[in-house]
Write a structure and sequence with these properties.
Layout lengths: L10 H9 L7 E3 L3 H8 L7 E3 L1 H22 L12 H5 L9 H13 L1 H15 L6 H16 L4 H12 L1 H5 L9 H16 L6 H9 L11
Parallel strand pairs: 1-2
């Protein structure tokens, strides 16, 4: 266990896998450069599967940054439509489908700001990307999506599209190996709960030991 997110954090783990001659078909990763680098020191790019939830998370960060920039330069008469809409932009469209008030507030923003409207549509189309049923279908869908993002004329959208294009193989590998980092995120949440229950650990080595035995833990109230 390492306390940072450097390439060296994964090195011992990958060395153990190699020594054990483990047959690795796919590795789910977020797009953290250090982890990609560490993985490529031991395996080919073809085993990397970039996690869909992290990709959408990065897309949401892009939209949120665009929202802040557009709010700064908006006309005074339009300033109010930017208030209280952050989470509406980041939510999936289906989650506010039956919320008339939320839809009204979101639509007001999309009507007055073309850039945000375009970015929002592209975000929802990207979410639909994982509904593709074959690698070939997904490849064509992604190509079409990238073209629309590049011709949008929005610098933040184009920058995000460039990142996706640069990781294209790992993004499409999902359709060969449909895995995510979901189980790891579940473990991370357990670690956070463990840390909160102890009000923090001063002894890092002891904290590591407790993490190694998380799978045997049964969180129950005492007393």
């Amino acid at each position: 266990m390492s306390l940072d997110r450097k390439s060296s954090s994964l090195e011992p783990f990958y060395r153990k896998l190699k020594c054990a001659k483990a047959k690795i078909e796919a590795i789910a990763l977020d797009m953290w450069p250090a982890y990609i680098k560490a993985t490529l020191n031991y395996y080919s790019y073809n085993v990397i599967v970039f996690d869909r939830y992290h990709i959408i998370s990065e897309c949401n960060k892009m939209i949120d940054e665009l929202r802040r920039k557009e709010a700064q330069v908006a006309e005074l008469t339009e300033k109010n439509v930017f208030k209280g809409v952050r989470y509406l932009l980041l939510k999936g469209q289906e989650k506010i489908e039956n919320d008339y008030r939320a839809k009204y507030r979101l639509n007001r923003l999309l009507e007055v700001n073309k850039s945000i409207n375009t970015a929002y549509i592209l975000k929802e189309e990207l979410r639909a990307f994982w509904d593709c049923t074959t690698h070939e279908e997904a490849e064509q869908y992604l190509s079409d999506w990238l073209k629309k993002a590049w011709v949008s004329g929005i610098s933040l959208v184009r920058k995000f599209a460039n990142m996706i294009a640069g990781h294209r193989i790992g993004v499409l590998n999902y359709f060969n190996h449909p895995i995510t980092t979901g189980p790891v995120e579940g473990i991370n949440n357990k670690i956070k709960v463990l840390k909160r229950k102890a009000y923090g650990y001063r002894d890092v080595e002891y904290f590591k030991m407790r993490i190694y035995f998380l799978h045997e833990s049964r969180y129950a109230l005492i007393g």
